Amino acid sequence: xxxxxxxxxxxxxxxxxxxxxxxxxxxxxxxxxxxxxxxxxxxxxxxxxxxxxxxxxxxxxxxxxxxxxxxxxxxxxxxxxxxxxxxxxxxxxxxxxxxxxxxxxxxxxxxxxxxxxxxxxxxxxxxxxxxxxxxxxxxxxxxxxxxxxxxxxxxxxxxxxxxxxxxxxxxxxxxxxxxxxxxxxxxxxxxxxxxxxxxxxxxxxxxxxxxxxxxxxxxxxxxxxxxxxxxxxxxxxxxxxxxxxxxxxxxxxxxxxxxxxxxxxxxxxx
Length: 270
Fold this sequence. Notes:
Blueprint: E1 28-32, H1 37-48, E2 52-56, H2 60-70, E3 75-77, H3 87-99, E4 104-107, H4 122-149, E5 153-158, H5 173-193, E6 198-205, H6 214-217, H7 220-229, H8 242-249, E7 260-263
Parallel strand pairs: 1-2, 1-4, 2-3, 4-5, 5-6, 6-7
Helix pairs in contact: 3-4, 4-5
Family: Belongs to the short-chain dehydrogenases/reductases (SDR) family.
Region (Disordered): 1-21
Pfam families: adh_short_C2
């Protein structure tokens, strides 16, 4: 007899937290797009795990607030626009100058908005590709030298479940193209750099509450869509990415490279 569908999937891990023994203690990391949302959370998680972290975004005032919250001796602020071709080199240099090395790069900065493909301008498409894909490549390229010189490192490129699948009903052609590009760029860099000790992986979230998804998370029809289409029948919480980030950034994933870890409540599985 087939099992009856449940009305709600219980959240059995609400009080769970990542292990303190993550191997992140003393490592030096960069987190882009750290002024809000997932990037802010990622910076906090890494600092709490013992890392020294450079945070970057365009909104320097928010970065300074985060630095004060997390500890001024453990956090370095490098304000700037990640889509500016010259900025990633400045970011990496400022980090190495401040902390002496670079072990972890979290490419989180991104942009996107809903617009039907037939109505999307080429300029908008290129803007999204530049921020979400080209800047990821540039940051990876600039991180290569310091990581190679240290004998290796870990790059975590934040993609999306929409880099794995199309969705249609929430039209974002440029966003999906950019995130799909990030996933395959990750595989290629992983293959090229594996012998240097540099691992490159993707963290691919599903529906999570961020500034970018705020309007969607406040809309009843959108929430009903999530309830219908996500097997776990809810959006994720930001803390449900913590362990995934620490796994990919730390030595627990020492034999993992070129992979996408999708955290989406099962959405892309069906």
